[in-house]
Design goal:
It is built from eight helices and seven strands. The longest helix is centred in the N-terminal third of the chain and has 29 residues. By secondary structure, it is α+β, with helices and mostly antiparallel strands.
Amino acid sequence: MRLVATLALAFTPLALTATAEVAQAQDERDTATARSLFEQGVELADKGDWAGAADRFERSDRLRHSPVVAYNLANAWVELGRLVEAAELLRQIEKEEGAKPGVKKDARALLSQLEPRIATLVVEVESQPAPKDVRVNDRPFPEEAMGVPTPIDPGSVVVTVTDPKGAVLWSKRVEVTPGGQERITITMPKPVEPAPAVVPTPRETAQRSQEPQPTADAYDDGDLVDDEDKAFYEEPWVWVGAGAVIAVGVVVAVLLASGGSDSKEPTEPMGRGSSLGTITVGAP
């Protein structure tokens, strides 16, 4: 990967007023810092530390923009697999008026190598309503991009749907090849809608208000006591059964008593001369 190691950060001299002198001094400090960051980025790139190089190039470009710094930042992004961002940055360099012809040429050549490697992703939604928080590789996916091919970096791609609190409701991972296209369809389960509340009509409300309400005496008398809360001896069938058992017992006792008296030996008849308290057997 070819880096442009020459950096020219020029600025227009300001008028030598008090305010202009302060601004000029600040501008010079920014220029020196941006140059130092750029040089650090080149050194890190030479060592193969592309993440560190991208960090330095990005800081330098924010502090003092330069097409040379932007081109080197695009190079670092390519090495990190961030092809979509690198391609957009290279297109900006091609259109930039302040970029030198050599930098534009290098940007155009690198872009021609990148474009065939950029993949596309189509995200579709099958369920309705469509989820609002869709993310691709943890970045918000715009609703306008739904259902159409979208540029994506090749490699592992994770599409997630989250709720307002960030909890993952649905997720799918796919591997996208360089220059390929993948299609992902989000199939969310239909949310369970709560049952509608039953609102009584005015007539029903009026009828309920006219119904007699139970009094405290009714509760005290046990009229509204639930059958399940009653003790077994409070049940009517218990006392009916007990009365039937007692009645049967009395009948059985009477029958036994009468049967026992019939089985005794007959008493001798009292003679003529018998008297009360004494039994005298007469002569035949």
